[in-house]
Specification:
By secondary structure, the protein is α+β, with helices and mostly antiparallel strands. Helix content is 42%, strand content 14%.
């Protein structure tokens, strides 16, 4: 049985304070807003969430709750996680690491609540669905989820310890022992000889392919061309990047102009590959020297982990040590240019994008 977690009441916030800076926090609020029958009450809930009148929040399996105005019990019931949750996380080695680092990978998006997964209730006299108290509770919960996506797992039926134990069982080693595999012998690797440097090799020519019945010829041509490009990369560099399924899908869309994936993810890849995509999708705590530099070069910006925001401009510090510019596009942050070596140059790119 999962344990409940308690959090102190939020102090009053300034009028312009934002809710949900993480993509999963915004998805949580979208589920609330899609559930709402009255957007006027949602606006009242957003305002009420900043007043400091909502009491301490308690999160437990399938439920979050708080007292409002000292007398009304606001509760939001959360549907349990779908079957196969642990298997989806265990399918990628990086999923658990990302969660432990405070990030929810994009390819676990289906685990977020959707329409009908949130059921608000309150014993106040307001018949709204939700009333302003329950709505405010959800808006404040988005701040908690920004800091720790595991809290979402708790509300959907698993806490951190349960999840880690389940993953350890799901990822127990299987397969052929190494000694047995090597006993079969190692086939000789092919050798390559060329009279010119490998990095001078021309890009591969488009391939003519004859697909079998039922196979999309255009898709096959893209895959064949992509395989040739990756082979050239391997020859030139001696190594090929190991990508997750999500990264590879974005890479394909960016490289071959495919209409798949989010435009922000594709644009990020074109600006800086896997490092830029990571900066788009994850938050992390940067080293102290990066924080000091950002405070100096980005005065007045509000800082949340590796992201500095002022109005419609945002500068993010990437794990690769570079600074990435973003601009606000209808409530979502969109890449505004390639990474820069310093935050001031990245800020200039956000202004040029305007």
């Amino acid at each position: 049985m999962t344990a409940a977690k308690g959090f102190p009441a939020f102090a009053p916030q300034r009028a312009g304070a934002r809710f949900a800076t993480s993509w999963w926090g915004r998805a949580w609020l979208k589920a609330l807003e899609d559930t709402s029958l009255d957007h006027t009450l949602l606006a009242k809930g957003r305002a009420y969430a900043k007043t400091g009148q909502l009491g301490p929040i308690t999160l437990s399996s399938g439920r979050l709750a708080a007292m409002a105005e000292g007398e009304y019990a606001a509760v939001v019931h959360v549907a349990p996680v779908a079957a196969g949750f642990v298997e989806q996380i265990a399918a990628k080695a990086g999923h658990l690491a990302a969660l432990l680092d405070g990030d929810l990978p994009y390819d676990l998006v289906e685990l977020l609540p959707g329409v009908g997964d949130l059921e608000p209730e309150c014993d106040c006299p307001d018949w709204g669905h939700p009333c302003k108290h329950a709505a405010a509770l959800c808006y404040q919960a988005s701040w908690l989820l920004d800091r720790d996506p595991f809290l979402l797992m708790l509300m959907r039926g698993l806490d951190k310890d349960d999840l880690i134990a389940s993953l350890q069982r799901a990822t127990a080693p299987t397969g052929t022992p190494v000694a047995e595999a090597y006993a079969h012998g190692i086939p000789p690797l092919p050798s390559f000889a060329t009279a010119e440097p490998l990095d001078a090799l021309p890009a591969p020519e488009p391939l003519e392919v004859e697909p079998a019945p039922g196979i999309d010829p255009a898709a096959l041509r893209v895959l064949a061309a992509d395989a040739a490009l990756r082979a050239r990369e391997l020859l030139v560099s001696g190594a090929a990047a190991v990508l997750t399924e999500f990264q590879d899908r974005v890479r394909l869309a960016a490289t071959h102009d495919l209409d798949i994936g989010s435009p922000a993810a594709v644009r990020s890849w074109r600006y800086g590959g896997a490092a830029a995509l990571d900066t788009l999708t994850t938050t992390w705590t940067p080293p102290r020297q990066a924080v000091v530099r950002a405070r100096r070069d980005l005065p007045g910006f509000a800082a949340v982990r590796n992201r500095w925001t002022l109005g419609g401009a945002q500068v993010r510090y990437g794990r690769d040590g570079r600074w990435y510019p973003f601009v606000d596009a209808d409530g979502d942050w969109f890449p505004a240019g390639p990474p820069e070596p310093d935050p001031a140059a990245a800020l200039a790119a956000t202004q040029a994008a305007d």
